[in-house]
Amino acid sequence: LAKTTQPISMDSYEGQEVNITCSHNNIATNDYITWYQQFPSQGPRFIIQGYKTKVTNEVASLFIPADRKSSTLSLPRVSLSDTAVYYCLVGPNSGGYQKVTFGTGTKLQVIP
Amino acid sequence: NAGVTQTPKFQVLKTGQSMTLQCAQDMNHNSMYWYRQDPGMGLRLIYYSASEGTTDKGEVPNGYNVSRLNKREFSLRLESAAPSQTSVYFCASSVRASSHSEQYFGPGTRLTVT
After folding, report:
1. C-alpha span between B103 and A17 (Å, rounded)
2. Taking CA atoms, which of A16, B15, B52, B108 is between 20 and 30 Å from B33?
3. B58, A99: Cβ pair inside 8 Å?
Protein backbone atom coordinates (compact mmCIF):
# COMPACT_ATOMS: atom_id res chain seq x y z
CA LEU A 1 0.00 0.00 0.00
CA ALA A 2 1.23 3.46 -0.91
CA LYS A 3 2.32 5.65 1.98
CA THR A 4 0.84 9.14 2.19
CA THR A 5 2.16 12.29 3.84
CA GLN A 6 -0.04 15.25 4.76
CA PRO A 7 0.30 18.25 7.06
CA ILE A 8 -0.68 17.45 10.62
CA SER A 9 -2.83 20.54 11.03
CA MET A 10 -4.06 23.68 9.26
CA ASP A 11 -6.00 26.75 10.30
CA SER A 12 -8.25 28.77 8.03
CA TYR A 13 -10.68 31.63 8.39
CA GLU A 14 -14.30 31.16 7.52
CA GLY A 15 -15.09 31.90 3.88
CA GLN A 16 -11.60 31.15 2.61
CA GLU A 17 -10.61 28.44 0.18
CA VAL A 18 -8.55 25.69 1.80
CA ASN A 19 -6.08 23.52 -0.06
CA ILE A 20 -4.69 20.39 1.62
CA THR A 21 -1.86 18.66 -0.18
CA CYS A 22 -0.99 14.99 0.12
CA SER A 23 2.24 13.40 -1.01
CA HIS A 24 2.20 9.79 -2.29
CA ASN A 25 5.51 9.20 -4.05
CA ASN A 26 5.13 5.42 -4.44
CA ILE A 27 1.62 5.43 -5.91
CA ALA A 28 1.02 2.44 -8.16
CA THR A 29 -0.45 2.49 -11.65
CA ASN A 30 -3.78 1.06 -10.54
CA ASP A 31 -4.11 3.19 -7.39
CA TYR A 32 -6.83 5.78 -6.90
CA ILE A 33 -6.67 8.78 -4.58
CA THR A 34 -9.53 9.21 -2.13
CA TRP A 35 -10.24 11.80 0.54
CA TYR A 36 -12.37 11.29 3.64
CA GLN A 37 -13.58 13.68 6.34
CA GLN A 38 -13.98 12.70 9.98
CA PHE A 39 -15.74 14.60 12.74
CA PRO A 40 -15.06 13.75 16.41
CA SER A 41 -16.79 10.58 17.60
CA GLN A 42 -17.96 9.69 14.10
CA GLY A 43 -16.79 7.39 11.35
CA PRO A 44 -15.10 8.92 8.30
CA ARG A 45 -17.20 10.17 5.42
CA PHE A 46 -16.27 10.06 1.74
CA ILE A 47 -15.50 13.39 0.10
CA ILE A 48 -14.01 12.75 -3.33
CA GLN A 49 -11.99 10.29 -5.40
CA GLY A 50 -9.87 10.63 -8.50
CA TYR A 51 -7.28 8.94 -10.67
CA LYS A 52 -5.76 11.80 -12.65
CA THR A 53 -6.22 15.49 -13.58
CA LYS A 54 -9.13 17.19 -11.86
CA VAL A 55 -12.29 15.92 -10.25
CA THR A 56 -15.01 18.16 -8.87
CA ASN A 57 -18.20 17.41 -6.99
CA GLU A 58 -20.65 19.48 -4.99
CA VAL A 59 -18.39 19.80 -1.95
CA ALA A 60 -14.77 19.75 -3.14
CA SER A 61 -12.27 19.56 -5.95
CA LEU A 62 -9.34 17.20 -6.29
CA PHE A 63 -6.28 18.18 -8.31
CA ILE A 64 -3.85 15.47 -9.40
CA PRO A 65 -0.72 16.36 -11.44
CA ALA A 66 0.45 14.25 -14.32
CA ASP A 67 3.02 12.31 -12.28
CA ARG A 68 0.34 11.50 -9.63
CA LYS A 69 2.91 11.71 -6.83
CA SER A 70 0.80 14.24 -4.99
CA SER A 71 -2.76 15.50 -4.86
CA THR A 72 -4.55 18.56 -3.51
CA LEU A 73 -7.97 18.64 -1.93
CA SER A 74 -9.62 22.03 -2.38
CA LEU A 75 -12.51 23.11 -0.16
CA PRO A 76 -14.16 26.30 -1.39
CA ARG A 77 -15.34 28.91 1.12
CA VAL A 78 -15.04 26.83 4.29
CA SER A 79 -17.41 27.26 7.20
CA LEU A 80 -17.09 26.37 10.88
CA SER A 81 -18.78 23.05 10.16
CA ASP A 82 -15.82 22.04 7.98
CA THR A 83 -13.64 21.77 11.10
CA ALA A 84 -12.63 18.10 10.98
CA VAL A 85 -9.80 15.71 10.20
CA TYR A 86 -9.18 15.06 6.51
CA TYR A 87 -7.56 11.84 5.33
CA CYS A 88 -5.83 11.19 2.03
CA LEU A 89 -5.88 7.54 0.98
CA VAL A 90 -4.20 5.78 -1.90
CA GLY A 91 -5.06 2.29 -3.02
CA PRO A 92 -6.54 0.12 -5.73
CA ASN A 93 -10.22 -0.21 -6.52
CA SER A 94 -11.56 -3.51 -7.66
CA GLY A 95 -15.28 -3.80 -8.13
CA GLY A 96 -15.92 -1.57 -5.15
CA TYR A 97 -13.38 -3.21 -2.88
CA GLN A 98 -10.69 -0.88 -1.56
CA LYS A 99 -7.69 -1.87 0.46
CA VAL A 100 -6.40 1.44 1.69
CA THR A 101 -4.41 2.84 4.59
CA PHE A 102 -5.55 5.81 6.63
CA GLY A 103 -2.66 7.96 7.79
CA THR A 104 -2.92 10.40 10.69
CA GLY A 105 -4.77 12.94 8.55
CA THR A 106 -4.84 16.74 8.55
CA LYS A 107 -6.74 18.44 11.34
CA LEU A 108 -8.42 21.50 9.83
CA GLN A 109 -9.54 24.20 12.23
CA VAL A 110 -11.85 26.85 10.76
CA ILE A 111 -11.72 30.12 12.63
CA PRO A 112 -14.63 32.59 12.71
CA ASN B 1 -31.88 2.60 4.97
CA ALA B 2 -30.03 2.33 8.26
CA GLY B 3 -26.69 2.14 6.45
CA VAL B 4 -23.98 0.49 8.58
CA THR B 5 -24.97 -0.40 12.13
CA GLN B 6 -22.69 -1.57 14.92
CA THR B 7 -23.40 -3.10 18.30
CA PRO B 8 -22.63 -2.45 21.04
CA LYS B 9 -21.83 1.28 21.10
CA PHE B 10 -19.76 1.00 24.28
CA GLN B 11 -18.13 -1.94 26.05
CA VAL B 12 -15.81 -2.41 29.01
CA LEU B 13 -13.96 -5.71 29.31
CA LYS B 14 -11.50 -7.14 31.76
CA THR B 15 -8.21 -8.51 30.48
CA GLY B 16 -8.72 -12.03 29.18
CA GLN B 17 -12.45 -11.74 28.50
CA SER B 18 -13.84 -12.36 25.06
CA MET B 19 -16.47 -10.57 23.03
CA THR B 20 -17.87 -10.18 19.55
CA LEU B 21 -18.52 -6.87 17.85
CA GLN B 22 -21.41 -7.00 15.44
CA CYS B 23 -21.73 -5.11 12.17
CA ALA B 24 -24.51 -5.14 9.60
CA GLN B 25 -25.19 -3.19 6.42
CA ASP B 26 -28.42 -2.95 4.46
CA MET B 27 -26.97 -1.45 1.25
CA ASN B 28 -26.23 -4.76 -0.50
CA HIS B 29 -22.50 -4.00 -0.55
CA ASN B 30 -20.09 -6.78 -1.38
CA SER B 31 -17.08 -5.56 0.62
CA MET B 32 -16.84 -5.01 4.36
CA TYR B 33 -14.05 -3.89 6.69
CA TRP B 34 -13.05 -3.62 10.33
CA TYR B 35 -10.80 -0.77 11.47
CA ARG B 36 -9.52 0.39 14.82
CA GLN B 37 -8.72 3.97 15.74
CA ASP B 38 -6.56 4.81 18.72
CA PRO B 39 -6.72 8.30 20.25
CA GLY B 40 -5.26 10.96 17.96
CA MET B 41 -4.43 8.40 15.30
CA GLY B 42 -5.75 7.41 11.93
CA LEU B 43 -7.69 4.25 11.23
CA ARG B 44 -5.86 0.95 10.89
CA LEU B 45 -7.34 -1.95 8.96
CA ILE B 46 -7.79 -5.12 11.04
CA TYR B 47 -9.57 -7.45 8.61
CA TYR B 48 -11.55 -7.08 5.45
CA SER B 49 -13.92 -9.14 3.35
CA ALA B 50 -13.79 -8.33 -0.35
CA SER B 51 -16.88 -10.41 -0.98
CA GLU B 52 -19.18 -12.83 0.81
CA GLY B 53 -17.30 -15.97 1.75
CA THR B 54 -13.83 -14.39 1.81
CA THR B 55 -11.87 -12.70 4.58
CA ASP B 56 -8.29 -11.46 4.69
CA LYS B 57 -5.93 -9.90 7.18
CA GLY B 58 -5.28 -6.20 7.17
CA GLU B 59 -2.54 -4.20 8.83
CA VAL B 60 -3.15 -5.22 12.48
CA PRO B 61 -4.94 -8.62 12.65
CA ASN B 62 -3.22 -10.12 15.70
CA GLY B 63 -5.63 -10.83 18.55
CA TYR B 64 -8.73 -10.71 16.34
CA ASN B 65 -10.84 -13.06 14.28
CA VAL B 66 -13.66 -12.27 11.89
CA SER B 67 -16.68 -13.99 10.38
CA ARG B 68 -18.51 -12.90 7.26
CA LEU B 69 -21.81 -14.48 8.27
CA ASN B 70 -23.63 -13.51 5.10
CA LYS B 71 -23.61 -10.58 2.70
CA ARG B 72 -25.05 -8.23 5.34
CA GLU B 73 -23.09 -9.14 8.45
CA PHE B 74 -19.41 -9.05 9.36
CA SER B 75 -18.42 -9.71 12.98
CA LEU B 76 -15.14 -9.11 14.82
CA ARG B 77 -14.16 -11.31 17.75
CA LEU B 78 -11.64 -10.68 20.49
CA GLU B 79 -10.82 -14.06 22.01
CA SER B 80 -8.75 -12.80 24.96
CA ALA B 81 -8.92 -9.05 25.34
CA ALA B 82 -5.79 -7.08 26.24
CA PRO B 83 -5.43 -3.43 27.35
CA SER B 84 -3.66 -2.73 24.03
CA GLN B 85 -6.98 -3.43 22.32
CA THR B 86 -8.61 -0.43 23.96
CA SER B 87 -9.74 1.57 20.96
CA VAL B 88 -12.67 2.70 18.85
CA TYR B 89 -13.67 0.08 16.32
CA PHE B 90 -15.29 1.06 13.04
CA CYS B 91 -17.00 -1.21 10.60
CA ALA B 92 -17.40 -0.14 6.97
CA SER B 93 -18.82 -1.43 3.73
CA SER B 94 -18.07 -0.31 0.20
CA VAL B 95 -19.59 -0.09 -3.21
CA ARG B 96 -18.41 0.89 -6.65
CA ALA B 97 -20.62 3.63 -8.02
CA SER B 98 -20.46 4.85 -11.62
CA SER B 99 -17.69 7.35 -10.90
CA HIS B 100 -15.94 6.15 -7.77
CA SER B 101 -15.69 3.60 -4.97
CA GLU B 102 -16.79 4.70 -1.52
CA GLN B 103 -16.64 3.24 1.97
CA TYR B 104 -19.56 3.83 4.31
CA PHE B 105 -18.72 3.75 8.01
CA GLY B 106 -20.72 2.81 11.05
CA PRO B 107 -20.88 4.91 14.23
CA GLY B 108 -18.17 2.94 15.99
CA THR B 109 -17.83 0.81 19.12
CA ARG B 110 -15.82 2.28 21.98
CA LEU B 111 -14.02 -0.56 23.75
CA THR B 112 -12.08 -0.25 26.98
CA VAL B 113 -10.06 -3.18 28.31
CA THR B 114 -8.97 -2.89 31.93
Report:
1. 26
2. B15
3. yes
